[in-house]
Design a protein that fits this description.
Pfam families: HTH_3 (PF01381). The protein is mostly helical and 187 residues long. It has ten helices and three strands, in the order ααααααααβααββ.
């Protein structure tokens, strides 16, 4: 059993390495494969997922489970992976426009902390906002839908953010700290 856990963990590490090498976020890959982002995350963290889902993800990427387990995928170029994915997408109920958008997002996705930072720099957080408002703003500006918990974690990790209780019971509102007089903003 310990060996099985070790194998799953190694397989998950290989998969995450491959996904990040290709520049796909969990959400992007979920859109392409139809396997949910939490399931892909479980795979990457060494937890068990069904063999059917794992095999399907590998098929979309154009590799075998053996390639993934043995790390043979390192020898495959990113261009070849993109070609494999594009071929598979043509067979899925996903339009080429959607694939293009996913592909563009994959190249520019930086994660929740980056997107929250961008909202701060745009001045969106100069007023107190609830997480759902921030989520809508990020989706509108970047076409990426983040989970509310991801946004909350990114906000709480940022030392430039303050919060207060919302009028709605149990909710918080977040805002950028006001810049001190005489200090310059970093570019």
């Amino acid at each position: 059993m310990a060996k099985n856990n070790l194998d799953r963990k190694r397989l998950g590490q290989h998969f995450k390495e491959l996904r990040t090498r290709l520049g796909y976020s969990l959400e992007n890959l979920a859109s392409i494969t139809g396997v949910s982002a939490p399931t892909i995350s479980r795979l990457e963290n060494g937890h068990q997922i069904t063999l059917k889902k794992l095999t399907f993800i590998c098929q979309v990427l154009g590799i075998s489970l053996e390639d993934l387990a043995g790390k043979s995928y390192i020898q495959i170029s990113n261009k070849q992976f993109q070609a494999n994915i594009k071929k598979k997408i043509e067979k899925l109920p996903l339009s080429s426009t959607t694939y293009k958008e996913i592909n563009e997002e994959a190249k520019s996705f930086h994660g929740p902390s980056y997107l929250v930072k961008m909202a701060m720099e745009e001045g969106y957080l100069n007023e107190f906002r609830e997480v759902h408002e921030i989520q809508q703003h990020i989706h509108y500006t970047s076409k990426i839908t983040l989970l509310p918990s991801s946004i909350t974690n990114a906000l709480k990790r940022n030392p430039g953010i303050i919060y207060k209780a919302s009028e709605r019971n149990g909710y918080l509102k977040y805002k950028c700290k006001a810049a001190k007089k005489g200090t310059k903003k970093r570019p």
